[in-house]
Design brief:
The complex is a heterodimer.
Chain A lengths: L2 E9 L5 H10 L6 E12 L6 H11 L5 E5 L9 E7 L6 H14 L8 E11 L4 H11 L5 E7 H4 L28 H10 L17 H14 L5 H10 L2 H4 L1 H4 L9 H18 L5 E3 L6 E4 L4 E9 L1 H6 L1 H17 L6 E11 L21 H19 L5 E6 L8 E11 L17 E6 L31 H15 L7 E4 L4 H13 L2 E4 L12 H6 L5 E6 L4 H10 L4 E7 L4 E6 L2 E7 H6 L26 H9 L8 H6 L8 E3 L2 E2 L4 E2 L3 E3 L8 E8 L8 H17 L8 E8 L6 H21 L3 E7 L3 E5 L5 E5 L3 E10 L16 E5 L10 H6 L11 H16 L5 E4 L4 H13 L3 E4 L6 H6 L6 E5 L4 H8 L3 E7 L3 E6 L2 E6 H9 L6
Parallel strand pairs in A: 10-11, 15-18, 25-26, 32-35
Antiparallel strand pairs in A: 1-2, 1-3, 2-5, 4-5, 4-6, 7-8, 8-9, 9-12, 10-12, 13-16, 13-17, 14-16, 15-17, 18-19, 20-23, 21-22, 23-24, 24-29, 25-29, 27-28, 30-33, 30-34, 31-33, 32-34, 35-36
Helix pairs in contact in A: 2-3, 11-23, 13-14, 13-15, 14-15, 20-29, 22-23, 26-29
Chain B lengths: L17 E9 L6 H11 L1 E7 H5 L10 E4 L13 H20 L3 E5 L1 H9 L13 E4 L7 E9 L12 E7 L3 E4 L1 H9 L3 E6 L21 E5 L5 E4 L15 H10 L11 H11 L1
Parallel strand pairs in B: 1-2, 1-3, 3-4, 4-11
Antiparallel strand pairs in B: 5-8, 6-7, 6-9, 9-10, 10-11
Helix pairs in contact in B: 1-7, 3-4
Classes of the chains: A alpha+beta, B alpha/beta.
């Protein structure tokens, strides 16, 4: 027997009504009003609720001061059409879960398996919309990949209202492992690699394994020597472990004739090794590349970790869910570092298309399966990272957005987390971990469903109405917050486990097999894994990427205490097996062994691939128009460019003050300008702080990817130098997001960028401590005329920096401070406009990309951070995208005060204003510090003017720019004013 | 079990700790317990951070404490309304302990999510000791979470606001839009229960104007007390700006002080609120 009740909650006067309505109107829908009703559908089978109980439940789910509710009765309202948006079967429903917990608390009993509360939202639209427009409106309110939508006219709604929908998961699969024959011709093997194993139940392919022929041969040969066929779970497991995502084959494979160890070992790891060796006892690295994050010394007591991840493909399909999963996923890389670090700062980065354009691109033929609009993607990813960090109580001060139309098909979503942990607990180093034979394998956190199986490769059409959604995972930050709290605030310090790692890509197949390396074996009982719904096949349970899960190695004598702690924190934990020293990864399901592979083959059986590069075609150079007459206007136009202007609407949505460590935040100065770097205290009572910055120059990479990489490193470092962080206290991280990486031309660009990374890191002596790559960021689909279209992202490298500020009270912000202060330009300007924002504004390609003398910069940066730490500087700001004029404008806007400067040289006026020469800063100082500052900086500092008046005035040979600071501020803040 | 990841910075506090202790609630997504404890410690009061389930399991007793704090956070992810689900958990499991605690000469502080929880529990305004839901914190007018520094000032002097001219600290909430009926507002005013209002930097009223009033709150209300004055509930986070360097414009203030050859303080003005609490028990 099933009992269903529907509770509808609405505001008497919804405060968000105007903003919501205006937003929808700004997207082109001529509506009058858009109201939202929260719906809770309570579904039970064991027993029903009385009317009094239902009324009380309604009271608990609504706020009687400002809301009303109905039980099993349609909300009465004036409107023209109603759109209900709920989740598809199997999609994580956080609101429904909370409502269920509230009801359980009130009725003092738990829901039975299968019983649930489902949340949905009912939108009442007033205003006449055509059926097509109404459908379009529904697609902006919902995502077909995860949502179900039901539309009714006012007449259809009548007095009965919307239909009651129960999104039950309905599975008919045979939950058993199957044997798979690999004794096939090569074309058939290739098909298995590309499209997956044939499911004996449905006859359909299960989705791409991304195994190539050589890898499939290696698997076939391995099982031939064992004298048996592999099971489906064994093949799926090898596909996960050997995937580009996990093994980074492009970065690991021998390249050309001179890099037999591959790019990663030759360029990234070698740089760090060399720096550590040369630094000797001044080495700041504690744990690099080997763990979920990289760890460096904070002080004698603490270490800090950093890790930046990407979550690109899922974010293209479901921007909100993809970005949310990205940020909570990288939080787990912190919790899973060593024995568990506490996440203390989040960072973000988005590379997206112009949100004001709507390119017509489709994943399918005949205008089917259109891409999401850049605006939709931007809104979704901004919100996803925000909700993830905000709900988890982790400040998100630092980040960037980069706009380029080549990101329309595949946006890039970067998410990073800094963690803090004590270096020891008195008896052991907390950054070290070691699972022991005999330890229980305990899975902690969320349950396992079909989410994230084969990642984003499933298309929505393949789903029938009862199928759970497999393509995307949706994070539940609160479940994870509970997991995080119980681990890093309690269990770790009680010494209850030997090892811990995150369940990310590949789920437990990767996390357990990875930890098994520490003790050389594992034995898993898959039927013990708690599931979201019954009927999953063993291979699905093994590789599912359901979120919010950590895997721990708990010694038998600590198990009771650990499980009891989890129960009291309402965190689910399950023993799913045991770590062994058998040298094998053995998996059982319902009493049968379904997987038995030697760890050595699982981890190292991957055949070696030799990659080759060929130089790409050079970029053509277009002629540059003459210098514009009206440079005042040009300065304002440049300030309004999306890559330069204020994106404060993001900073405001992101809690950047929680944990109480805000020192220099995402916006600075009275005029609120977004800085290049932020500074946060992570240990109360310590003078030290963590500075974060980044460098990204996708527009340079087609011209010169080597210089692009050096520019990224220089800029990431320079952001921290301007806060006063010494060069010796800075470490960096790399995130390569490339395209078509099997193309020898793209590989060549990658090779040059990696060499740039080596030269940059070793030149500045800033070690790489962690990195990640994503090698195939290409969109393949169709345009409106059914022509095949491929849109590849520009080769993109994000270099993130982390530095330890020795005394945050000495830090400086970017804003000009006091009338009469002196303005300095540190470093000279050269004609380096190739790939610049200015050339992009003029529509010019080609040109010279900035180059630097790293040794000279190193000396300059040491002098400047030193001058800041000696209180000689009032403000400092690096000159980056947009050049000198933009940096001066930002310093003036932030201080809401004018500057009068004169620049020397014979360069074309517009080039001198907008060239992006690296290594430069704008610094302001108190006049009485002139002598000591110039002494400290040496020949590098050029006194160019004063802080004065209400305008920015720049005089050069044959030109003069003079713009009121208030006009600059308007230009800087206008583009995203309505977001 | 108490949680102590970061030992407190006793070196910062020059004060002796008073014997009475504070109970700081945690669990289910509350996230500001550490900095709240730090603020109290610096003001001279020790605190235990206790998971709500350990109170329900009787591992800790509310009545062993003098100050009960509901800190900021995102309990239950704000699902079903900010603070609502956590308030339900308190009401359904700890109501007797809570009313017993309120009978004694004790104080309750709720910040941000804590305010939302207290409002849903009816601990504010609690006219005539009736714990009804009389006020609400609705979604912000802009419909999204907003994190920014605000200036607030006391509307009336009471044990909490004594000697405070202003507090400059962050708000960070999606649902802080104070709402109540005209009758309730009248009583809040006549019984001097409005603790803090949002204002401009020069202390003139915000008059509902964004961003000074960041969320659309009725009468610029940023915090209220209970009718008996023993409960303070506020949306802004003074515990997030304990130090001089936590203030938004500290780099400018520091330059101005340096030019006048005046000393640069290490503590922020906001600590006065926590000292007032500790003074009450002293």
């Amino acid at each position: 027997m099933a009992y269903v009740h529907r509770i509808e909650v609405r505001y008497k006067n919804d405060p968000r009504l105007t903003v919501r309505t205006n937003r929808i109107r700004s997207l082109g829908f001529p509506i009058e009003e858009l109201h939202v009703i929260d719906i809770y559908t309570v579904y039970t089978t064991s027993c029903d609720f009385s009317p009094e109980e239902l009324r009380e439940i309604g009271i608990q789910l609504a706020n009687p001061v400002v809301q009303t509710f109905t039980v099993d009765k349609a909300t009465v309202a004036f409107f023209d059409s109603a759109i209900e948006v709920g989740f598809l079967p199997g999609v994580t429903d956080n609101v429904g879960t909370t409502a269920r917990q509230t009801i359980e608390d009130y009725i003092k009993r738990k829901f039975e398996p299968g019983e649930a509360v489902y949340s949905s939202q009912l939108f009442f639209v007033t205003g006449k919309l055509s059926p097509d427009a109404l459908q379009n409106l529904a697609t902006t309110l919902a995502n077909p990949l995860i949502h179900r939508v039901h539309i009714k006219s006012r007449a259809e709604y009548g007095t009965k209202g919307m239909d009651v929908v129960i999104p039950l998961v309905d599975l008919h699969e045979l939950p058993a492992a199957e044997l798979v024959s690999l004794d096939l011709d090569d074309p058939d093997l290739i098909r298995i690699g590309k499209e997956g194993i044939v499911d004996s139940e449905t006859g359909q392919r299960r989705g791409p394994l991304a195994l190539d022929l050589a890898q499939l041969h290696a698997i076939r040969d391995y099982f031939a020597t064992k004298g048996r066929k592999p099971t489906d779970i064994e093949i799926e497991s090898l596909a996960q472990t050997w995937s580009e995502h996990c093994k980074h084959t492009i970065f690991a494979s021998p390249l050309d004739d001179d890099m037999p160890k591959g790019l990663y070992k030759t360029c990234i790891q070698a740089a760090t090794n060399r720096i550590r060796q040369e630094r000797g006892d001044k080495d700041i690295c504690l744990s690099v590349f080997s763990d979920n994050s990289g760890g460096i010394i904070f002080d004698d007591q603490y270490l800090v970790t950093h890790k930046v991840e990407t979550h690109n493909s899922p974010s293209a399909l479901d921007p909100f869910g993809g970005a949310l999963t990205g940020i909570v996923g990288v939080n787990r890389d912190t919790i899973g570092f060593g024995l568990g670090a506490k996440p203390c700062i989040n960072i973000y980065g988005f590379c997206v298309g112009d949100p004001e354009k709507s390119p017509a691109l489709f994943r399918g033929k005949d205008k089917s399966n259109p891409i999401l609009s850049p605006r939709r993607i931007l809104d979704g990813v901004v919100s996803g990272v925000g909700v993830g960090g905000n709900c988890s109580g982790i400040p998100t001060p630092q980040g960037f957005v980069w706009f380029d139309d080549r990101y329309v098909g595949k946006p890039l979503v970067f998410a990073g987390t800094v963690g803090i942990m004590p270096r020891t607990d008195g008896s052991r180093n907390l950054h070290e971990k070691q699972a022991q034979p005999g330890d229980h394998i305990v899975m902690v956190g969320g349950r396992v469903g079909k989410d994230g199986i084969h990642g984003a490769t499933f298309s929505s059409e393949a789903l029938d109405p009862g199928s759970p959604v497999t393509a995307v995972q949706i994070g539940d930050p609160i479940t994870q917050k509970k997991v995080s709290d119980v681990i890093v605030k309690e269990a770790r310090d009680l010494g209850l486990y030997h090892s811990i790692t995150d369940n990310g890509a590949g789920g437990i197949s990767c996390s357990v097999a990875e930890m098994a390396k520490e003790c050389n074996g594992c034995h898993v009982f898959l039927d013990k894994v708690p599931l979201k719904y019954p009927g999953m096949a063993p291979w699905e349970i093994w590789i599912s990427e359901s979120q919010e899960r950590m895997t721990l190695a708990v010694p038998p004598e600590k198990l009771d205490e650990f499980m009891s702690l989890l129960r009291r924190r309402e965190v689910e934990g399950t023993v799913i097996g045991e770590f062994t020293n058998s040298g094998r990864c053995v998996v059982e399901f319902n009493g049968a062994v379904v997987m038995d592979i030697e760890l050595s083959f699982l981890h190292d059986g991957l055949p070696v691939k030799h990659l080759r590069t060929t130089p790409p075609a050079p970029v053509s150079t277009t002629p540059v128009p003459p210098c514009p007459d009206n440079l005042d206007e040009m300065v304002k136009e440049m300030l309004s460019r999306k890559n330069i202007c204020s994106k404060e609407f993001i900073s405001l949505q992101y809690d950047h003050t929680v944990q109480g460590g805000h020192v220099l935040g995402p916006v600075q100065g009275t005029g609120r300008v977004q800085g290049m770097a932020t500074l946060t205290k992570v240990v109360p009572g310590s003078k030290k702080g963590v500075g974060l910055s980044q460098g990204i120059f996708p527009s340079y990479s087609e011209i010169d990817s080597y210089r692009m990489a050096v520019a990224c490193i220089d800029t990431a470092i320079r952001g921290l130098i301007a806060l006063g962080i010494p060069l010796e206290a800075i470490a960096i991280l790399d995130n390569f997001c490339w395209c078509s990486s099997d193309d020898p031309g793209r590989l060549s660009q990658l090779r040059h960028a990696a060499i740039g990374c080596y030269d940059g890191a070793t030149g500045f002596e800033t070690p790489f401590i962690s990195g990640k790559d994503s090698m195939f960021n290409d969109f393949s689909g169709y345009d409106e005329q059914n022509n095949r279209v491929k849109v590849s992202v520009p080769p993109t490298l994000l270099v993130s920096s982390i530095g330890i500020h020795p005394d945050v009270t000495k830090a400086v912000s970017l804003d000009a401070k006091v009338e009469g202060d002196l303005v300095y330009l540190i470093g000279e300007t050269r004609e380096e406009c190739g790939g610049s924002e200015y050339f992009a504004h003029l529509g010019c390609s080609g040109g010279t990309v900035p180059d630097i003398d790293i040794a000279a910069m190193k000396a300059r940066y040491k002098r400047l951070s030193n001058a800041i730490l000696h209180d000689l500087v009032a403000s400092a700001f690096p000159v980056t995208h947009g050049g000198l004029a933009i940096a001066l404008a930002k310093v003036a806007i932030a201080g809401r005060i004018g500057m009068d400067v004169t620049i020397s040289g014979d360069m074309r006026p517009d080039y001198s204003l907008f060239s992006e020469t690296l290594g430069r800063f704008i610094v302001t100082i108190a006049p009485d510090k002139k002598r000591s500052f110039e002494l400290a900086m040496g020949y590098d500092a050029f006194l160019i003017g004063r802080v004065t008046g209400k305008s920015l005035q720049i005089t050069g040979k044959g030109f003069r720019v003079a713009v009121p600071v208030s006009d600059l501020e308007t230009a800087y803040k206008k583009p995203f004013g309505g977001y | 079990m108490t949680q102590a990841v970061f030992s407190s910075s006793t070196k910062v506090s020059g004060e002796e700790l008073i014997p009475d202790k504070a109970l700081i609630m945690s669990g289910y997504g509350i996230n500001s317990e550490m900095e709240t404890k730090e603020a109290l410690l610096r003001a001279g009061m020790d605190a235990d951070i206790v998971h709500i389930n350990d109170l329900i399991d009787r591992k800790f007793r509310m009545t062993d404490y003098r100050l009960l704090v509901f800190p900021g956070g995102f309990s239950y992810g704000d699902d079903t309304g900010a603070g609502n689900a956590y308030a339900n958990r308190v009401r359904n499991n700890l109501w007797n302990d809570l009313t017993e605690f309120l009978e004694e000469d004790n104080l309750v502080l709720g910040i941000c999510n804590g305010f939302q929880i207290l409002a849903n529990l009816g601990l504010v305004p609690a006219f005539d000791k009736q714990y009804n839901r009389d006020i609400a914190l609705m979604p912000n007018r802009k419909g999204v979470l907003e994190c920014r520094y605000v200036t607030i000032k006391p509307a009336f002097e009471n044990l909490w606001t004594k000697g405070i001219e202003r507090i400059v600290c962050p708000v960070s909430h999606g649902e802080g839009n104070f709402s109540c009926s005209p009758e309730v507002l009248k009583r809040l005013k006549s019984q001097k229960m409005i603790a803090f209002t949002y204002c401009r930097e020069d202390l003139r009223p915000a008059d509902g104007e964004y961003p000074f009033n960041p969320n659309g709150s009725t009468a610029d209300i940023a915090g209220i007390t209970s009718a008996d004055g023993k409960v303070l509930a506020m949306m802004p986070h003074p515990e997030r700006a304990m130090e001089f360097v936590n203030q938004y414009d500290w780099t400018l203030q520091k330059e101005i002080l340096k030019r006048k050859q005046l000393p640069v303080p290490s503590e922020s003005i906001n600590m006065r609120l926590f000292r007032n609490i500790v003074d009450y028990f002293r």
